[in-house]
Amino acid sequence: xxALNIVVLNPLADRHRExxxxxxxxxxxxxxxxxxxxxxMPSCHILVxxxxxxxxxxxxxxxxxxxxxxxxxxxxxxxxxxIQAADTILTNAKGIHGIPxxxxxxxxxxxxxxxxxxxxxxxxxxxxxxxxxxxxHGSTLAIVGLGSIGREIAKKAKALGMTVLASKQExxxxxxxxxxxxxxxxxxxxMLAKADFTVTALPLTESTQNRIRLQxxxxxxxxxxxxxxxxxxxxxENDLVTALEQNLIAGAGLDVFACEPLPESxxxxxxxxxxxxxHVAALSxxxxxxxxxxxxxxxxxxxxxxxxxxxxxxxxxx
Length: 318
Description:
It is an enzyme of class 1 (oxidoreductase). With 318 residues, this protein is of the alpha/beta class.
C-alpha cells in the first residue's frame, strides 16, 4: 500500500506525530493552516480539521480524499452537499469532551447555588454581607440531549445527590438518569417544569436549531437556572434575554452564543444573573492528546478495513 497523505489543520506536538506514526508508520503527516491548505489538497487522502472550519473548497480540490476527521464533536461546517452525496467517511471527536464540559457545568451550577456570583461582585466593593445560599443536593437537573457529554454531567450530578432527568431520541437504560423523556415538545415541557437546573447538550442540526424558545423558558420554575454548553443557535437568544428580563427564570450560565464573540451590545453582558464564558467549556490541557489518540485508533481501523469509531451520520448531522 502506498503512503497515505494526512493533512492536519492544527499544530501538532512531537508526541502527537509519534502517536499517529505508531498507529501507522506508512503515512506522511503534513501540518498546515486554513490559509495554506489548498495547495496540499490534490494529494491529500485524509483531512484532519475542526468542525467549525470552512472546508468545502478544500474538499472540492481533493480528488483522492477518503476520510475527514473532525477534532471537535460538532461537524456543522463539514456537512456540505458534496460530502453528503459521496462515500467519504466523516468522523468526529465525540466522547472526549465529557470531563471538562461536565466540570464546567458543575462549576456554573455551584457558583449560582452557593452565591459566588454575588460574592464576587461584593468582593470588588469590599462588602462583607452574607447572602442566601442553596445546595445542589436534593435538587433536580434536566439534561436536554443525553449524549456522551450529557451522561458525564448526569454521572457527576448523581454523585452530588441530585435527581437527574434527561431527554434523548432513543429509549435506553441509563445508569445515572432517574427518568428518561422522549424529545417531543410536550415531554420536554413536562421535564423542564420539574427541574431546578437545565442544561442543553444537543448537537446543532436543522432539527435542533432554535429548539429552546420562550415557551420552554416559561415552562421552567422562576427559581430555575438554564445552562448552554452546546451551540448558541440551539437557543433563541432573544427569547432567553426576555426570560431573564421578565424573571421567568432565575439565571443562566452560557458558554456558547448565536454570534461569537458575543457582541458588546448584547444585554447579556450586564445581567447580574448571567455567567458568560467565551466558548471554553471543552478546553483542557488534555484535549488534543485525547483527540489525536482517538484519530490514531481510527487510523489503524481505517488501514485494516475495520469498523471505525464515531462515524457521523451525514443526514442526521451527528
